[in-house]
Amino acid sequence: MPKLTTKQTKKQESGADMRAFGPLFNKDLGQHILKNPLVAQGIVDKAGLLGSDTVLEVGPGTGNLTVRILAQCKKVVAVEFDPRMAAELQKRVNGTPDQRKLHIMLGDFMKTELPYFDVCISNTPYQISSPLVFKLLEHRPLFRCAVLMFQREFALRLIAKPGDTLYCRLTVNVQLYAKVDHIMKVGKNNFRPPPQVESSVVRLEPKNPPPPVDSKEFDGLLRIAFVRKHKHLVANFKQTTVLHMLKQNYNTYCSAHNIMLEDDVDIKDKVVEILESIGMAEKRAANCDMDDFLKILLTFNNANIHFS
């Protein structure tokens, strides 16, 4: 019988460990179950739940967070992709007072029509981190807060400030619509099986009312600004593809709103003039704050130039 390599042995041991806990976890689905009860309770406590709350939980797994949420709220709606995990969770509450408070929705969270909820709590499958955040922020009516577990680097991007290494388009898009705070760091050994990376928990609180800014338009501006975030903004805007897009958008907007087009308008000169008029031509996206981006958007829009 051939001798197993060290790597093969570790893989076998890892698989045996996972099977010992019941269902075999699917790493392709980002299934890393939070096993530390102190961390689980800390996450629930940071949500500030009320007895009247309906809580949305994304990816409940075997229910280590769920049972703690159920103890503090009126109802839990748990969205689970894996039927095996959903069955384990249902078995865990069957025959208890919490059974009637738990509603499991089986399916892909990104394709699920979400019901009303007051608070969201999630040990998030890391591959859907960004889509999940934006789906939550687009949900109406607005929820009170979300307490979400993410890969450490993703979480740090959400809370970054201008000038930080991880400050990026994602940062600005999210912070336009929500206040984001770092709650706690969570080491990989708090999960089974352990993920390859460290994790963090953030608390996301939507701004209510949300700012009256078109999200697609704002993101269109940020795409240009952050394509090379350490370059001067004017250099990013002077790229041929960007100028072509802005000229098309300008013509389309003017046509749709019966605005007389300027004769022989040079879009490059117009863009440079706009940026210089508000002192933003020599600024870099990496150091711009929210007010800077909103000022750029408003000034371009007032000149009938749009980004979507």
TrEMBL record:
Its EC number is 2.1.1.-. The keyword Magnesium does not apply. CDD domains: AdoMet_MTases (cd02440). S-adenosyl-L-methionine binds at residues 32, 34, 59, 80, 108, 123. Residues 39-208 form the Ribosomal RNA adenine methylase transferase N-terminal domain. It is an enzyme of class 2 (transferase). InterPro entries: KsgA/Erm, rRNA_Ade_Mease_Trfase_CS, rRNA_Ade_methylase_Trfase_N, rRNA_adenine_dimethylase, SAM-dependent_MTases_sf. PANTHER family: DIMETHYLADENOSINE TRANSFERASE, DIMETHYLADENOSINE TRANSFERASE-RELATED. Belongs to the class I-like SAM-binding methyltransferase superfamily. rRNA adenine N(6)-methyltransferase family. Specifically dimethylates two adjacent adenosines in the loop of a conserved hairpin near the 3'-end of 18S rRNA in the 40S particle. This is rRNA adenine N(6)-methyltransferase. It comes from Phycomyces blakesleeanus. The lineage of its organism: Eukaryota, Fungi, Fungi incertae sedis, Mucoromycota, Mucoromycotina.
